[in-house]
Amino acid sequence: METMDDTTVAGTAGAPPAPEELERHRAGLTGYCYRMLGSAFEADDAAQETLVRAWRGMSRFEGRASLRTWLYRIATNVCLSSLDGRQRRARPMDLAGAGTVASPLGPVHAESTWVEPIPDDRVLAPDADPGEHAVVRDTVRLAFVAALQHLEPRQRAVLILREVLAWRAAEVAELLGTTVASVNSVLQRARARITARRGEATDPVRPLDPEQRALLERYVSAFESYDIDALTALLHEEATLSMPPYRLWLRGPAAIAEWMLGPGHGCRGSRLLPVHASGSPAFGQYRPSGAGGGFEPWALQVVEISAGRIVGLNSFLDTARWFPLFGLPDRPGAEEG
Question: In angstroms, what CA-CA distances link 325 with 8, 113, 115?
Fold first, then answer.
């Protein structure tokens, strides 16, 4: 359960909350906005806008609701306004059937098309306990956030507040200015819709899990040595490979191996640097540049795992956006110098 301090601020009867009191809600607000919007950049902007509005409106905060409720009401309004009239974000698997090695890569689609990854440290409150961190990681996974995008915006808000943040129905009703009966009705419909869209569950990253670490070590070794037999042995039979901003995606170890030995052969000799993205293991991939034996940024890989097998390889190719966001250097080894 993701918990937050429910202390009611004294409002006009006492000192208003200090800026640092608002700031300590940033990670939770960013995670909430990310689940609502499906974009790390938009979530950062929405959380910042929430805190700016809260600070500017502090003189009107009278303490009748908790600071938490007040902040999330602002964040909800920011997100609902942002989503008004907008097409939902998706993953390549939501937009077309699986391709083959012979399929054209197709055009580059706008960034607003895709559910995008977010650095874990943007959504993990530093003072939260390991159990809270585990819940946050589980509910910012790409598959879960993509499933949320199939809900209407208010349904999305209700489901996140009730099922992820564990708010009481009365709290959500107060925040949305509606009734408990209405909240429960919306939640029931949202649960039914998202159940049909969840797809296969994936495991969030568990830094202290020796089995998960061993699997990832085998993946890095196989990828960097470009041992495709060893790599595909780690894949689930229904594993997928996707490459936003392109719509093309592949399913199954055979198709993935054929791609990597064919159109993807330029990845041979790559180096991987580990990061955490959307609650999952991830890597900055650097391909050989061909210029003096150097390397160049190629992709942010988000690796989805389930029951000891890799079920998803998601390569986000716009490294000019992703590498700075995740603190990845221009070349492997530069972070050590």
Answer: 35, 19, 16
User: Could you give the 3-state DSSP secondary structure of residue 309?
Assistant: strand
Contacts of 195 (CB under 8 A, 6+ apart): none
pLDDT digits (tens, 9 = 90+) for 26-64: 999 999 999 999 999 999 999 999 999 998 887 666 555
> For residues 332 and 94, what is the distance between their CA atoms, to the nearest angstrom?
33
Residue whose token pair is 């809600």? 25
Helix %, strand %, coil % of the chain (to 5):
50, 15, 35
pLDDT at position 286, please?
97
Separate counts of helices (H) and strands (E) for the chain: 14, 6
- Cβ atoms of residues 202 and 312 within 8 Å: yes
Give the global pTM.
0.91
Q: What is the biggest distance separating any 2 CA atoms in the chain, rounded to whole angstroms?
A: 70
CB atoms within 10 A of CB 162: 20
Count of C-beta atoms within a 10 Å radius of residue 129: 9
- Distance from C-alpha of 252 to C-alpha of 259, rounded to nearest angstrom: 11
Cα angle for residues 333, 316, 336 (degrees, 5° grid): 10
Q: Identify the residue whose tokens are 């993953």.
A: 91
